[in-house]
Design brief:
Elements lengths: L6 H50 L6 H16 L4 E7 L2 E5 L11 E7 L2 E9 L9 E7 L1 H36 L1 H12 L16 H50 L5 H32 L8 E4 H18 L3 E5 L3 E4 L1 H17 L6 E8 L3 E9 L33 H11 L3 E7 L2 E9 L3
Parallel strand pairs: 7-9
Antiparallel strand pairs: 1-2, 1-5, 3-4, 4-5, 6-8, 9-10, 10-12, 11-12
């Protein structure tokens, strides 16, 4: 299997490639500009030589006149060793400074290579604009120009290679330095376990982009830590809740079986065990219900509900309990919503049951309903001893009870009512919160507008 490149290696190669491309492009442009510059210089030099040669051969229109000026012409050419000349007229060569070399006959500037030597060839008439005028062909040796251009091309390639190598090394160093916070994140992530969820990434020395990632990573660790703590507490609480009824069942059964007893004693023992088993079955059902809520499996039906009627039905159901506890039940307001009748009744039933249990004799339980611009607000409030503000958010935790005397398992209330109520409200897209002040404790449910 081919090993994948690290991010630092990829960045280094990318830097090197970009530098090589830019250097190569700059070299090609510079080489092209140098070539154009040398061509321009050669053209200027040939133009100046053409003026001198025309001056030397002025008036020459026959081989005899040319022979008279040949010595002067050779003297002029001797002063320019890199320059050669060919003179032709009417198909005859009067003078040939480059014998054996085939030269272009078209007018203008040309390039020519012969026997490893580079030439710039320039064709022009002796007398401009005169038909039949002898043709001058100037040959300028530009081999030194080409050597310079070749050396420059070699230098360009060397510069491109060295620049790419240097950039790759510097890019690798910069990438490793810049990605050090990511490696730190990897180390922290690798060290995270159930026993080390308290580690956090420092954000103050990180770049802005990585600081946001570190903040999100730390928030994730915080949520994991909180979830793990809740799970650990939940495991301990459910063990406490089940320990007492199981211990009661075992002890009661062992005592009954220690000696023969009348049939009525066995019947009473079975009846007592049945109550404990029913409570345990209800606890398991409640836990399964909450598990479905945690996984988003609670799918409430949407039907139009008149909350007045639902609350009135529940008040009638709890009326006898309220009468026995000497607590008055009061309903205020009206409201309509869309939701699951059974689930909302269960949520309200849990709130009313809690309110009745913690309201002293002579107290009052009040259910208020109102429709607002945002939806429906329903509150269940009761008089009695208040709850500290620090404990209010924890009331919705599973198995949590504010009364320290009821921390162990009980066959009456397991501390799941408010957790189930919260799950039902959230499944309907609403929220629930608690308040406690001025001798009143209230739980407020806010539901969105019904369809």
């Amino acid at each position: 299997m081919i090993k994948r490149l690290s991010l630092a290696s990829r960045l280094a190669l990318l830097f090197a490639a970009c530098t090589a491309v830019v250097s190569l492009l700059a070299g090609v442009l510079f080489n092209h500009a140098s070539e154009a510059h040398f061509i321009e210089l050669d053209q200027q030099q040939l133009d100046s030589q053409l003026v001198a040669l025309r001056s030397t051969l002025q008036g020459v229109d026959s081989p005899q006149l040319f022979a008279q000026r040949e010595a002067q012409l050779r003297a002029e050419l001797n002063r320019q060793p890199e320059l050669a000349l060919r003179v032709t007229a009417q198909g005859q060569r009067w003078f040939d400074g480059a014998p054996g070399i085939s030269l272009p006959e078209a007018p203008g500037l040309h390039s020519l290579q012969n026997a490893g030597t580079e030439y710039r060839v320039y064709n022009a008439p002796l007398v401009a604009g005169q038909p039949g005028s002898p043709q001058l062909t100037l040959m300028l040796d530009i081999t030194h120009h080409q050597h310079f251009l070749q050396r420059m091309q070699h230098l360009i390639w060397l510069t491109v290679g060295l620049s790419a190598l240097a950039t790759a090394l510097l890019g690798a160093w910069a990438a490793r330095s810049g990605l050090r916070p990511l490696r730190r994140m990897g180390e922290v992530a690798a060290s995270v376990s159930a026993h080390s969820l308290t580690q956090r990434l420092p954000q103050q020395h990180m770049p802005v982009e990585l600081a946001e990632l570190a903040q999100a990573f730390n928030a994730m660790l915080g949520r994991l830590d909180d979830s793990f703590q809740r799970l650990s507490a939940f495991s301990a609480d459910i063990a406490h809740e089940l320990r007492t009824p199981l211990s009661n069942l075992l002890t009661h059964t062992q005592v009954i079986l220690t000696q023969p007893r009348p049939l009525e004693d066995y019947r009473e023992a079975l009846h007592s065990n049945l109550e404990e088993l029913q409570w345990m079955a209800q606890l398991v059902n409640d836990m399964l219900y909450l598990a479905k809520a945690d996984h988003g499996l609670l799918m409430p039906k949407r039907e139009a509900l008149v909350l007045d009627d639902e609350v009135e039905a529940l008040i009638e159901f709890f009326a006898l309990l309220a009468e026995d506890a000497h607590v008055s039940l009061v309903r205020e307001g009206t409201a309509h919503t869309a939701g699951d009748r059974g689930m909302l009744r269960r949520a309200l039933s849990n709130l009313l049951d809690n309110a009745l249990r913690f309201t002293p004799a002579g107290g009052e339980v009040r259910v208020r309903m109102a429709e607002t611009a945002r939806g429906v607000t329903l509150s269940v409030e009761n008089t009695g001893e208040g709850i500290p503000a620090a404990l209010l958010p924890r009331l919705f935790d599973r198995f949590y009870r504010a009364d320290p005397a009821r921390r162990e398992g009980s066959s009456e209330h397991a501390g799941l009512g408010l957790a189930i109520t919260q799950s039902i409200v959230r499944a309907h897209g609403g929220r629930i919160y608690g308040e406690s002040e001025a001798g009143w404790t209230r739980f407020v449910i806010e539901l969105p507008k019904g369809d």
